[in-house]
Design a protein that fits this description.
The complex is a heterodimer of chains A (212) and B (261).
Chain A lengths: L1 E8 L3 E8 L4 E6 L5 H8 L7 E6 L2 E2 L5 H7 E4 L10 H11 L7 H10 L15 H15 L3 E5 L7 H17 L3 E5 L3 H7 L2 E6 L2 E7 L1
Parallel strand pairs in A: 3-8, 3-9, 6-7, 7-8
Antiparallel strand pairs in A: 1-2, 1-4, 4-5, 9-10
Helix pairs in contact in A: 3-5, 4-5
Chain B lengths: L8 H6 L2 H13 L4 H27 L3 H22 L6 H27 L7 H32 L1 H9 L4 H26 L7 H8 L4 H30 L15
Helix pairs in contact in B: 2-3, 4-5, 4-6, 5-6, 5-10, 6-8, 6-10, 7-8, 8-10, 9-10
Classes of the chains: A alpha/beta (212), B mainly alpha (261).
Bound molecules: adenosine-5'-triphosphate and magnesium ion.
Chain lengths: 212, 261
């Protein structure tokens, strides 16, 4: 799916070689400031690498239109982005941005259920707690139904139990629908439990890569 | 019709009583604004006297080159003023776009207004050309300043939302849409508001001046209506040009956000 070769971004990231397989759950570990978010941003083409190559389905990222790529490889940022409006608006806005047709409230409820957020669609999204906002934004990217999910610490504001529930329902969904999940997490437990594939970034380079 | 009362120099000077009263008040209250008040009163006086003499000269020596020169100077001052007024630092491409929008927006409005609406002759008649251009350029300058501030501030404070929109697959245009619309709104709102209060809350300066100098109020009002529409048109056109070109400077060709790099 993703293939990285000699990728360099400023003095933040320096990756010799890395393969991220298709239809698998890949977890990225690493201490704070090691460049995990930067890697996801590179894969989402929010920033461009200075040297080397990144291939997505055997095509260089440089040759893929950014917007087209992002509609197939969606990224969830580390801090949840809440747009003004209610929960429904915040779910639908993703479809609007991706130029996909809007969906019925039933579908929205189904997605909220998937992220275990039992709330009224008309509730002001600003009034949600941090963890609820995080789950709302997760629901928003699930609704987009992309090929690849790039999730930057999607469960950082959740307690351990809720984290487990959410990630397992997420992984279920990914497996059932043949999606690829690339997830940054600070929890080794999550990585051990759910990942098909884990690697760790240390001092801006990949130190170990392995199947779990 | 009664003759216009020509103000004697001492009559004009007596109007400075207002400034004196203000200065006394400020002094008693301990508000340290004396310097600004004095300087602005002085600048206003000197600038207007100077402009008065220049206009007299221009009206007596009618020459298309002079008219064009005056317009160019006004445009340069207006553009420079926008750069100075905006608190945030402006990027070079953004400055270029401000200048282009001001020139295109105001000049096309001025030309339309003078040649189609008023239909002046000769085409360079400074008696029409200069004051009308002044009003159109001045108001567009205020409008675009507001628009620039809103756009730049919006892009900076809502950087995270804009980038999140990109992550969800938005084009730069979609991602910036809300900020762009807000900027447009705040840029033209003052002009729209001033139209609402016009004639009831205040008589606009241009009309007042015309009436004082002996022109029939009806004629003055006709001009005022036309010029207000011209100003609204020019402000909108200038601001639309600016924001539609301006938001693009925050993105690169790869649809990436490039703020602060
Ligand atoms: N826009 C930027 N300009 C310059 N340096 C940056 C920029 N963004 C991040 N960095 C630096 O790059 C390094 C990696 O940042 P990154 O956000 O990728 O870390 P991270 O692994 O996601 O950390 P965390 O776990 O805290 O989220 C940090 O040292 C950070 O200071
Ligand atoms: Mg991070």
């Amino acid at each position: 799916m993703f293939l990285l070769k000699e990728v360099k971004y400023k003095n933040i990231l320096n990756i010799k070689a890395l393969t991220i397989p298709e239809n698998k759950v890949t977890c990225i570990l690493g201490e704070s400031g090691s460049g995990k978010s930067t890697l996801l941003r590179l894969l989402n083409k929010l920033i461009s690498y200075d040297r080397g190559e990144i291939f997505y389905n055997n095509q260089s990222l440089k040759e893929i239109d950014s917007v087209k790529l992002r509609r197939s490889v969606v990224m969830l940022p580390q801090s949840p982005a809440i747009f003004s409006g209610n929960i429904r608006d915040n779910l639908l806005i993703g479809l609007k941005f991706a130029e996909k047709p809007p969906v019925s409230d039933d579908r929205l409820h189904a997605v909220l259920k998937l992220v275990h957020l039992d709330e009224d669609l008309n509730k002001d999204a600003e009034k949600l707690s941090e963890g609820e906002k995080q789950r709302l934004t997760l629901g928003r990217v699930l609704l987009l139904d992309p090929h690849v999910f790039l999730l930057d610490e999607p469960s950082s504001s959740l307690d351990e139990d809720t984290e487990h529930i959410i990630i397992s329902s997420l992984v279920d969904y990914v497996k059932k629908n043949n999606k690829t999940l690339i997830m940054v997490t600070h929890s080794k437990k999550v990585a051990n439990h759910f990942a098909d594939n884990t690697f760790e970034i240390k001092k801006a380079t990949i130190i170990n890569e392995g199947e779990v | 019709m009664k003759d216009v009362i020509n103000l004697q120099i001492w009559q004009m000077a007596s109007a400075y009583v207002f400034i004196v009263v203000l200065l006394i008040f400020v002094r008693i209250r301990g508000i340290s604004r004396e310097k600004e008040i004095l300087i602005s009163a002085l600048r206003m006086t000197l600038q207007l006297i100077l402009v008065g003499y220049i206009l007299v000269y221009l009206f007596e020596n009618i020459n298309p080159l002079y008219t064009i020169l005056v317009i160019i100077i006004m445009e340069i001052f207006a553009i420079y003023n926008i750069f100075k007024r905006t608190k945030t630092k402006l990027s070079k491409p953004l400055k270029k776009i401000i200048a282009i929008s001001m020139l295109l927006g105001t000049l096309s409005s001025i030309l339309y207004f003078l040649f189609i609406v008023v239909n002046i002759s000769p085409w360079y008649d400074p008696r029409y050309f200069i004051p009308i251009s002044g009003m159109i350029i001045g108001n567009s300058m205020t409008g675009i300043s507001l628009g620039v501030t809103r756009l730049v501030d919006g892009m900076h404070t809502q950087k995270h939302l804009v980038e999140s929109a990109l992550m969800l697959g938005a084009t730069p245009r979609m991602a910036a849409k809300k900020i762009v619309n807000n900027a447009f709104d705040s840029a033209i709102l003052p002009t729209i508001n001033s139209m609402v209060g016009m004639g009831i809350v205040f008589l606009p300066g241009m009309m007042t001046g015309q009436i004082l100098s002996g022109i029939s109020p009806i004629t003055a009002i006709e001009y005022q209506i036309a010029i207000m529409l011209g100003i609204l048109g020019s402000v909108s056109l200038t601001v639309i040009l600016f924001i539609n070109l301006g938001y693009k400077t925050f993105f690169n060709g790869k649809s990436q956000l490039v703020i602060g790099d």
